[in-house]
Each structure stands twice: as structure tokens, then as C-alpha cells.
Amino acid sequence: MRDTRLLRLRTLPLIGLLAALLLPLGVGLAPGAAAAPEATPVRVMPLGDSITGSPGCWRAVLWNRLLEAGHMDIDFVGTLPEQGCGVAHDGDNEGHGGELATHVADQDLLPARLAATRPDIVVMHFGTNDVWSSVPTDRILTAYTELVARMRASNPDMRVLVAQLIPMNPSTCAACAQRVADLNARIPAWAAATSTTRSPVTVVDQWTGFDTATDTYDGVHPNAAGDAKIAARWFPALAALLEDGVPGGPGGPGDGGLVCTASFRAVSGWQGGYQAEVTVRNTSSAPLPGWRVTVAPADGARVTQVWNGTLATAADGTATVTDAGWNGTLAPGASTAFGLIATTPATSAPAATVGCAVTASS
Fold first, then answer.
1. CATH architecture of the domain formed by 42-244
2. Cα–Cα nearest to 70, from 243, 245, 249
3. Which of 273, 278, 276 is nearest to 348 (CA)?
4. Which percentage of the chain shows pLDDT scores above 90?
5. What is the C-alpha separation between 141 and 147, in angstroms, rounded?
């Protein structure tokens, strides 16, 4: 949670000084004039276990990436403070070490945490300890459903980003690697059944391209390389929500707010590269004036070429594709697509995390 007290303490004496200088000159504030109200920041709760909170330094990477992208009106919230990552960031979180999603659901622990923090968006990487404890996949997904219900009771407009968990391969659990894969395989269908127009649930693939041998220090918890990968996967989906706006937040839509979605499809592949297509769809009830899609390729791939869009690429490989003008306006329910070429040092199947945001007309 950001501390604005120092800013306000510095600002008030300055206002008094200006008033003292201006009043002898007969200059005053116009009757009824008032400073513009501060924008209410969008409150984002990182929810999970030790991967999120102990210390969960992917949150620091993500926070600073969001600031660099211009998302200044954000507030990470949670009942737990920062645990130290060596870089300035908003460290509040809800990542309780050793906690099971099923335990939080069964003991109904989430409502009090939600009431104390009032998030608009929940970023959830939760279930690693359930898998480690041999909790059946069906029970974990039931717990997910109960947790989302509590989120919506707190805020009917809650946006939920849920992760397909990073791989795990602890030395004490030979079966964990397959069990987490089994859970991840079922999360997309669960999310599709749980998502609503008012309170969407979006899946973020944290599994693909994450290697426990190089991206963790113990087969479970991310090292610096793993933190960077996790943050890079969360960024497009969270940035898209922030750009779309949340009800009551900066740029937040009311009823009939404009929303778009993006979906990734591999077309062909070869040694060292692949071709893919991204479909953009207007899922709102009004015409879309323009769109922007973020593409975070897996396994170190980089987008080198696009058609039917304009490409910009960040240092970490995340690509931003803006409509080409002629294909920016979409009627309700309509879609368009752009193609891309990516180069990759890996031989794994093409994959990318994509997110869509509405823009003004090009």
C-alpha cells in the first residue's frame, strides 16, 4: 500500500505559502474552486502461498514493470507486508507460506482478508501446497469456486486472474510434478464455467516455459530467473485489466463498458521459429474504437514480425501490437486477427500469454 502522507505534508505548507504571497496582491482563489480529486487507485491483491509471499519477489518485478508502463494508479493490497526483495515496490500481499487453498476455503478465512483490503482485482497463484499434500484435483477446484464466490460477495465486479501453477519437482514428492500438471489441465475449463460478464475469471499460463531446474532454487520456489518469468506472464493480463478499467477505478467502465479479448493460435513451426495468429474479439455491447494486444511469448521466444497490426517490443521480449487503423473498429461480437512470426531458442511448442485492451481510434 502506497504511503501518500509525506506528499500531503509537503503540499499543505506550500499551499499556505502561496496564499500568503498572493493575498497581499489581491489575488485569491476563485469562489467555489477546488483541487481536482485524486484518482482512486485500483487495488490488486496477490493471493496464494509462499510462492506469492515468502518473499514472492515476482511481485516486485511486476510492480515496477507496471509503473514503467505508466500504470501509476495501482495499490497492491493484502494483510501481509513486504518480506524484502532488495528493490522498492508496494509489498502488501496475501501470500501465506504453507497455506492450502482448500484450507482457506474450508475455514472461510478469505472474507476477513477481503474486508480488510477491499481489492478490485485478485491475482491468484494458489494450490501448490494442496498438490504437495495429495489433495484431489476435484477438491482443489471446488475450493477455487468457493474462493471466487467469497471474492464476489466482497465485490460483485471482482476481476480474477488465476494461474496455471508453475511446475514443481521437490525432492520429497516424486508424484507432485504430474499432479500439478493434472490440476493445470483442468483450470481453463473451470475458469470458463466460473467466469461471468460482470466478474470475469482469466487464466494466466505460468506453467509453459518454466523450468524447475533453472527457475527455482529447490524445485518449488522461484529464483530470480523464475520471478522474472512469473512477472512477465502476469503483466499482459493485469495490464489489460488496468487499461480496460474497473468499476470505480481510474478509467473504470460503467454498464456497457468496452471490453475485448485476445486468443493465441499456433499456425506452423520450424527449427528456431514459428508462425501464429492472434484473434481479437469485441465482447462488449457497443462498437470498439480500437485495440492493443500484449503478447508475452514462452521459452524466450521473441516476436520479430507482425501483419495487420503495428509492433513494439519491450526489452524482456513482451510485444505490444496495436491495430492497423483499418481493423481497429469492431462491432459488438465482431473479431479480427493479426499474424506474427517469432524466433525461439527452444524446441518446445509455440505458446504465448496474450491480453487485450481497448484504445481510442487509431
1. 3-Layer(aba) Sandwich (3.40)
2. 243
3. 273
4. 60
5. 10
DSSP symbols for 196-228:
-SSS-EEEEE-STT--HHHHBSSSSSB-HHHHH
CA distance 338 to 327: 9
- Please tell me the pTM assigned to this model: 0.66
The domain limits of the chain are: 42-244, 260-358
Of 69, 91, 90, residue with least CA distance to 80: 91
Give one DSSP letter per residue of 229-266, joined into a string.
HHHHHHHHHHHHHHHH--TTSTT---TT---EEEEEEE
Backbone angles phi, psi at 82, to 5 degrees: -60, 145
pLDDT of residue 250: 53
Q: What is the CATH code for 260-358?
A: 2.60.40.290
Angle between helix 110-117 and helix 137-154 axes, rounded to 10 deg: 40
For residue 260, give every residue at least 6 positions away whose Cβ sits within 8 Å of its Cβ, in sequence order, or none: 280, 281, 282, 283, 284, 288, 291, 330, 356, 357, 358
How many CB atoms lie under 10 A from the CB of residue 343?
Answer: 14
Q: Is the pLDDT assigned to residue 37 strictly greater than 90?
A: no
